[in-house]
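User: Hello, can you help with two protein structures?

Assistant: Certainly.
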Amino acid sequence: MATLEEVTPKVEEKIQSLGFELFEMRFFRAGSRSILRVVIDKADGVKIADCAFISNELSALLDELNFADNRAYNLEVSSPGIDRPLKTEKDYRRIKGHDVHVHCTTGIEGKKTLIGEVVECENGILTITTEKKTVQIPLSDIYSGKEELRFK
């Protein structure tokens, strides 16, 4: 039986070879069902047809790898969505010039929640400009971040 930890590198390699990025992969129980949730991304976005294609490709690979000892599970393939969580430097650099909403563990000047425009994200430090000033936040201090979406 192949575990999640064992199949993740092979799944990531397969997804990359098809022109996508593995954003997240989790195996969990939901009531009486087991679910393998695979979240994919690519620069120009993910379409429903992309999810179906990746699902078919991964299904064959996972069977070949004997994932979960061939016990029944549901494979779900999706995109991170418009309100995707921001986790890495790459995520923050992708939205440079856009507003971000971050929650910090220790906070900046007593504030644990900040909203500001992403200036840059390099070497583990996110730089944003809030209404009052420019601040630098170590990514290790951010426990959640999302792009602040604005609709006209």
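That covers the first. Now for the second protein you mentioned:
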Amino acid sequence: MTSAERTRVGRGSWPADGRGGTLAPSANGPGSTGLGRCYGVGAGEAAPPGSTEGDILAVRSAVVAISRALNWHAGPGTPVATDGRFTAATGAAVAGFQEKLQPAINRDMYLPAVEHNPSGFVAKETAYALFMPIADRYALKYTVPRGLLRGITSIESNWDPGAVGYYTNSDYGLCQWNTTLPDVTTAHALDPFWALDSTARMMRERYDSDRWGRNWLYVIAAHNVPTWAAQWAQGQLSTANPDDVPKLARMNGYVSNVLARVW
């Protein structure tokens, strides 16, 4: 999806109708995949006309992330190639993962049939199954409530490993780390292991700090705008101040949206 389209319609680099280089059987005539937004065979290989360098990087990085997650779940053995190309072998590995390991996620989340992924393709359902157990490991590592880490990742990227910011093209990956921050590279942000580990670690550090009131609600808000969240935690924002009203509205909205996605 081109940057202009992404800004218009929402977060993420989930390929749609061939965008991002996904090649799939045509269901509605030439040029139509009929599969909606997903990564499949061809993703990371041939970007469609109009794709920016950032679009191509996001899709290829997402394919790398998917491949690494497949290897993480499979454990020792013949690894899936992590060169950023979604090949037939990658699709076969995804299909095997979906058959053996994905049903547990479906039962936990009560996903409707319309959200089930075609065999060998990665969309929201399969991404949940691939990356949530990794997120849970990092939540355990830092003693962070796993539901909060899941909720933040859901609102930030909907578990699209190649997500690019809705409001800014400097936010990348599962947790939408901003690459203008010191020591945060695009490669870091698009690495699901780095992003989930760093988000869980930051949540722990903020909770342990008096700056955010040792309160998980302010910690959640801090992932969106840390300065405002700290002011909110310290009682420095008031609805009586017109300048603070939009800040409080954004913080309350973000926290509410995250909590709505906690399970």
